[in-house]
UniProtKB/TrEMBL annotation:
InterPro entries for the chain: ALTTAQ_rpt, LRR_dom_sf
Highest taxon listed in the record's lineage: Bacteria
Organism annotation: Rugamonas fusca
Name recorded for this polypeptide: Heme utilization protein
Length: 155
């Protein structure tokens, strides 16, 4: 399939892709999918995408990811996300990141999260933050985002 033919696919056709087919999509082909197409992908099919393809997704595409798709990210895929992609995710999507995945998120992405996204993290997630990620938190994130339980989990 060409990138053009991928872009012309209906959402139903994208949903009908198998995991094996999704795994063969190039970065350009994944980029050609609409935001709705990406959000509609079956979780197993989404998880089969190449790490480079996920890293190259638009912020619109990553912003539309479902919590099931977020949970399905491998640690490598989560670590490949850009700061803009992470910041563009919904509060629920950020909260759905597995602790091992959250630990792989770039420090700059953690520093750019909104206070609502920070507040949505579980105490296990905040406890999994690296020293560099904790140091990158802004005064606003600490004062207006972290809950008392989250602060306690950092120690």
């Amino acid at each position: 399939l060409t990138t053009g033919s991928i872009a012309a696919m209906s959402t139903d056709q994208v949903v009908a892709l198998t995991s094996n087919q999704a795994a063969t999509l190039s970065t350009a082909q994944v980029a050609a999918l609409s935001t709705n197409d990406v959000a509609a992908m079956e979780t197993a099919d989404f998880a089969a995408l190449k790490t480079a393809s996920i890293a190259a997704m638009s912020t619109g595409q990553t912003g539309a990811l479902t919590t099931d798709q977020i949970v399905a990210l491998t640690t490598a895929q989560a670590g490949a996300l850009t700061s803009a992609q992470v910041v563009g995710m919904s509060t629920n999507a950020v909260a759905a990141l597995e602790t091992a995945d959250l630990a792989q998120i770039k420090t700059a992405a953690i520093a750019a999260l909104g206070t609502a996204q920070i507040a949505a993290l579980t105490t296990n997630e905040t406890a999994s933050l690296s020293t560099a990620q904790i140091a990158a938190l802004t005064t606003n994130q600490i004062a207006n985002g972290l809950t008392t339980d989250q602060v306690v989990s950092l120690s």
